[in-house]
Amino acid sequence: MRLSCTVNGEKREVENVWEGESLLYVLRERMGLYGSKNACEQGECGSCSVYLDGTLVCSCLVLAGQAEGCEILTVEGLAEDERLHPVQEAFVEAGAVQCGFCTPGFVVATHDLLQRNITPSEAEIREALAGNLCRCTGYEKILDAVRLAAERMAAS
Amino acid sequence: MTRAETIPTTPTRERPETPVSTPGRVGESTTRADGVPKVTGEFEYSSDLWMDGMLYGATLRSPHPHANIWSVDTSEAEAVPGIFAVLTHEDVPGRKVCGMEVPDQPVLAWERVRYQGEPIALVAADHPETARRALEKISVEYEVLDPITDAEEAMREDTPKLHLSGNLLRHIHVVHGDVDTAEADVVVEGEYEVGMQDQAFLGPESGLAVPDGRGGVDLYISTQWLHIDRDQVAESLGLEPDQVRLHLSGVGGAFGGREDLSMQIHSCLLALHTGRPVKMMYNREESFYGHVHRHPARMRYEHGATRDGKLVYIKARLVFDGGAYASSSNAVCLNAGTFACGPYDVPNALVDSYMLYTNNPPCGAMRGFGAVQVCFAHEAQMDKLAKALGMDPVELRIKNAIKPGDRFPFGQEVPPPAPVAELLERLKAMPMPEEEDITGRDLRRLPGGVSNVTHGEGVRRGVGYAVGYKNVGFSAGFDDYSTAKVTLSVEGGEPLVRVHTAAAEVGQGIVTLEAQIARTELGVNKIAVLPADTSIDSAGSTSASRQSYVTGAAVKAACEAVREKVFARVREEFGEDPDGLSIEDGNVVAEGHGIVVPLAELLDGEEIGELVKYRHKPTYPLDENGQGDAHVQFAFAAQRAIVEVDEELGLVRVVEVATTQDVGKAMNPQALEGQIEGGIAQGLGLALLEEIQVKEGRIQNASFTDYLLPTILDMPPVKMEILELADPDAPYGLKGVGEPPTIASTPAIVAALRDATGRELNRVPVKPEHIVGISGPTGQPPQPGSRGPAAERA
Ligand code: FES
Ligand code: FES
After folding, report:
1. In this predicted structure, what is the pLDDT of residue B782?
2. Smallest CA–CA separation between A119 and chain B, in Å?
3. A-chain residues within 8 Å CB-CB of B45?
4. Are A137 and B509 an interchain contact pair (Cβ–Cβ within 8 Å)?
5. How high is the pLDDT of residue B8?
6. Is the separation of the CB atoms in A59 and A23 below 8 Å?
7. Which H, E and C letters describe B43-98, residue by residue?
C-alpha cells in the first residue's frame, strides 16, 4: 500500500508498505527516521513514543495505515533551527542520558507532559513517565532533567 | 577537519555534527559528548544500521530445551521468493563451536540441542517478515529428550551427561582455617535462593555485516568486547583475524548480556554467502533467548559466632545453574566461591561453589557477577545472626568488618583501602527520611499506588542494611590489559588530541572519561575520541567494572608518553628543564616563567603519537584449597533501604535507599551518581520484580509485558555519600564503581521487608504471595489443602 502523512512538518509518501508494518517500522526502515526506538515493539517501554495528530502514542502499536493523512511529530522534529529543545538540553545537562536508548521516548513524553503542565509535582512527573522504561539511570537524573526543563520553560 | 568522533557510523550514513561537551577534566562532572546526538535521535545504534542493498537475517531456534536433531530440510525455505540464503551448521567453514571461556556452544546446532532457543539455521531475505516466514518453512526432525532442569539433579552420578566433560562445569573449594574444630556459642543456618534475572538492556541485539569483496568482512555491532568477538568470528569463518574487522556500533546498554556472541558469526556467515550486507536484529522476545542471564542459585549457609558477636566460622554450599553452555560460568563460580563470606573477617571458612550444566537457558555475566547471589545470602545470615545474638545488625557487621591487612577466606591479603566499617558507620549516621503520615497521603505514595488498594491500613515500615563487595577487573591469572593510542597534533591552528581505544562504550561513559583524562594530562581542550574498532589492539571487556581502571590507565600512560616527548623537544629547542614544565591551554609553560612555546608552534605541522599497552598487577589462580591472590582490586558499598509494605496484599513501596560507597576517586561525579542510581534500580528489580520464569526448561515470560522491570514509579529517591580513598595501584586512585550498588541493594531491600513483616523471605525476587505468606519459604507453591509452611509459622 501507499502511505502519505506529514512527518515533522514535511509531507512524506512511501510506497510498497506491507499492511502489517507498524508506524514505527515505517518511520525507521522506510523513512530513515531512526530516532524513535524499538526496545520492545509491544507497547511496554515507550521508547517509540511520537505524537500522532498531537496525541502521544507508542508508534509500535500504531499500524502504518492508521497514520494515513496524519501529522506525526518525532524526536527528530523537536529541535528548532539547530537549537535543542529545552527538554533535550535538560536531559544532556542533568546526566539523564546513559546508553540513551530510552532517551528519545522520555524526551517526547516529557515534552508532552510539560505542554500540559508546566509545574508538575514529583508524583505527576512519575505518573506521566510511568510508561517509559529506562534500564540504565535508575530514573533519578531523569527526574532532575524534567524539573530543570520545567523550570526553564516556565521562566521563558 | 577531525571531529570529536564518538559517534558510531556506517559507511553509508553521514556522521552528525560535532557533539558538544563541556570541556571537563578528571574529577569534574562532564556532560557526555554523545549526549546531544542521543537526545535528538541522531545517535546511531546497531539497530539503526542501514546500507543500500542490505538483506535482513533471521535465526531458526529450537522450540525444545533438549532434543536430538535427526534432519534439517531447508529446500522449501530456499524456494521462498525473496530468500537469498538458508544456512545450517554445514555452512560454517571454520570452527563449528564458540564460547568465551570454553568453546562448547555450536555456532549452529547439529545432532543435539541443549536449550530452548538454541540457533539451528539462518536465513537472509529482502524483508524481515519474509525472513521470518521462511524460517517456518525449514523442517527439523527432532527426537525430544527429557530436559535436565535442576542443578542438583544434574550433579547426580546417574543423570545423563549433557557434555562430554560431564555436567559439573566447575567446582571451587575454599578451605580457610578449620571449620570442624571451630567452636561457636551461637549458630544460625539458612537456605537461600536467587531467581534468574535478565540484563534487559533496552537496545536489542543487532548488527550489520558487510562483505569486503576480498573474502573478508566488516561487522558493525553492539558488544562489550570487540576483540573476543573478532577472534571467535574469525575462527568460525576460517579467516585470519585481520580479515574480520569489527566496529563498535551504538550500544543500548549491556550489563553483561553482550559479552557472549549473539549474531556476530551468523550475520557474517550470511553476508559472505550472499555477497550482500546483512543486518540482523532480534526483537524483544528473541532477545530473551539470544543472550545469557544471571545464574539462579541455591545456597546453604551456616554461621557460627561467639556470644559477643565475633564470627567464628562460615560454611557455605552454593549451587549455580549454568544452563546449557559455559559462557562465563567458570568466572562466576570463582567469584561466588571467593566472595561467599562477605566483607567480614572470619577465621574459619569452608565454601563449596558448584556450577552445573542443565537444559535451562545458558547463564553468564550480569552486573555483580557471582557476588550478587552470595551477597543476598550472607547478608541475610548476618541479620539472622544479629537477631539470635540480640545485637544491632549494623553493629554486628562493623564488629566483623574486614580491614586492610586481614586475609580474605581465599587467602589474599586485604589491600588498602577497605573501609567497610567506615562505610557502615557513615551509613548509619545518614539522616532517616521524615516519616510521612499514612492517613491522608497522596495515593501515589502508598504501596499499590493509584491502584487504590490501600489507604494505609495494613501498611508497615521496615529498615534493612547490607554491605556488598566485589573484585574489579579480570582475575585468577587472566592477562587483563588495555591498549590506547594518543596523538597530539594541530588542526586549524588549534591543538587537538586524538584518543583511540577499542573500549566499548555501552552507556557508562568511558568515552567521556577518556577525553577527561586526555584533557587533564595534556592540557588541551579539544579531544577527539575515535570510534572503537579492531584496527587497534584490545582494550579488554567492558565488564567487571574495569574500563575506567584499565583503559583509563592505558590512556593516561599514553598521554604521559606524549607529554614526555613534548617536553624532550622543549628541552632540545629551548634548554628548559623538563621537570618544571607543564602544558596549559595548549601552551608549554615553565614554572615561574610563563609560556615557553605554544604547542602549535612547537609541533610545526608534525604529530606526536604514542601507543601504550597497560596491564594491572598480575593475579593468580586459586590452588586446590581455593587459596590465592586471585583478584586485583576490591570495591565496597553499604546500603540502607526503607520500605513500606502492605501486609495484606503483599505490595511494597521502597521509600528510600541510602548508600555509602568508596570510589577511590570520583572521576566524573555526575556519571558516578548515575552508575550508583542505575545499579540500585537493578538490585531493586531483583529484590521485588525481575525473574525469568523457567518451567521444564522453557521460558514463560519472554516479553516486557511479563518480565517486569522497575519503572519510575518503583524507584525511590537515592541518598548517597561518596568516599574517595585512593587505591595506590590504580590510575588517579580510582575504583571500579558499576557493580557494588547492584550487589548491596537487593539484600538491603529484602532485609527491610523482613523487618517490616517478620517473615523469612529467603528467595528473590520476593513476591506478594511470599509477603502475605501463601507460599513456602523457597517459593514453592502451597500444596492443595495446606496453608503453606510460612502461613503456619505466622
Ligand atoms: S517499542 Fe513501542 S513501547 Fe516499546
Ligand atoms: S539510558 Fe539506557 S535505557 Fe535509559
Report:
1. 40
2. 17
3. 34, 37, 101
4. no
5. 54
6. yes
7. CCEHHHCCCCCCEEEEEEECCCCCEEEEEEECHHHHCCCCEEEEECHHHCCCCCEE
Closest to B115 in 3D by CA, of B154, B162, B76: B162
For chain A, the straight-line distance linking the first and the last C-alpha, in angstroms and rounded, comes to 45
Residue pair B741/B659 in contact by the 8 Å Cβ criterion: yes
With an 8 Å Cβ cutoff, are A136 and B442 in contact?
no
Question: Which chain B residues are within 8 Å of A141, Cβ to Cβ?
Answer: 670, 673-674, 677
Residues B101 and B327: beta-carbon distance below 8 Å: yes
Query: Could you please report the per-residue DSSP string of B706-756?
Result: TSPPP-TTTPPPEEEEEE----TTSGGG----SSHHHHHHHHHHHHHHHHH
Confidence (pLDDT) at B793? 34
Nearest Cβ partner for B201 among A18, A127, A135: A135
Give me the domains of chain B, ranges plus CATH numbers: 55-146+211-281 (3.90.1170.50), 413-470+633-758 (3.30.365.10), 481-615 (3.30.365.10)
Q: Could you read off the pLDDT of B583-626 as tens digits, one per residue?
A: 999 999 998 889 999 999 999 999 999 999 999 999 999 999 99
As a residue count, chain B comes to 794
Chain pair A-B, CB pairs under 8 angstroms: 186
CB B610 within 8 A of CB B556: no
- Tell whether ligand 2 has an atom less than 6 A from the beta carbon of residue A101: yes
Residues of B in Cβ contact (< 8 Å) with A99: 201-203, 251-254, 506-507
Task: Write down the pTM of the prediction.
Answer: 0.95
- Note whether A134 contacts B: Cβ–Cβ < 8 A: yes
How many angstroms does the Cα of residue B378 sit away from the middle of ligand 2? 31
From B42's Cα to the closest Cα of chain A, the distance in A is 6
Check CB contact under 8 Å for B40 and A40: no
Say if residue A85 is exposed, middle or buried (CB neighbours under 10 Å; 0-12, 13-18, 19+).
buried
Is the Cβ of A88 closer than 8 Å to some Cβ of chain B?
yes
Do you find a cis peptide bond into B16, omega within 30 degrees of 0?
no
Which domains, ranges and CATH numbers included, belong to chain A?
3-77 (3.10.20.30), 86-155 (1.10.150.120)
Evaluate: CB of B253 within 6 angstroms of ligand 2.
yes
How many CA atoms does the CB half-sphere of A136 hold within 13 Å?
26
Q: Which residues of chain B does A88 touch, with a Cβ-Cβ cutoff of 8 Å? A: 36, 39-40
**Facing residue for A84 by CB, picked from B39, B50, B506:** B39
- Give chain A as a DSSP string: --EEEEETTEEEEE-S--TT-BHHHIIIIIT--TTS--S-SSSSS-TTEEEETTEEEEGGGSBGGGGTT-EEE-GGGSSBTTBPPHHHHHHHHTT--SS-SSHHHHHHHHHHHHHH-SS--HHHHHHHTTT---SSSTTHHHHHHHHHHHHHHHH-
- Angstrom distance (rounded) from CA B237 to CA B583: 48
Determine if ligand 1 sits within 6 Å of the CB of residue A124.
Answer: no
B697, B774 contact by CB (below 8 A):
no
B767 DSSP 8-state letter: -
A36–B38: do the CB atoms touch at under 8 Å? no
Q: Which residues pair with B280 in a beta bridge?
A: B57, B207
pLDDT tens by residue, A82-101: 899 999 999 999 999 999 99
For A29, half-sphere exposure in the C-beta direction (CA atoms, 13 angstrom radius) is: 24
ipTM: 0.98
Q: Which of B42, B202, B690 to mutate to test the interface with A (most CBs of A within 10 A)?
A: B202
Q: How much distance in Å is there from the Cα of B247 to the middle of ligand 1? A: 27
pLDDT tens-digit map of B745-776 = 999 999 999 999 999 999 999 999 999 988 65
Radius of gyration of chain A, Cα coordinates, nearest whole angstrom: 15
What average pLDDT score do residues B513-518 get?
97
Q: Say yes or no for a CB contact (<8 Å) between B202 and A133.
A: yes
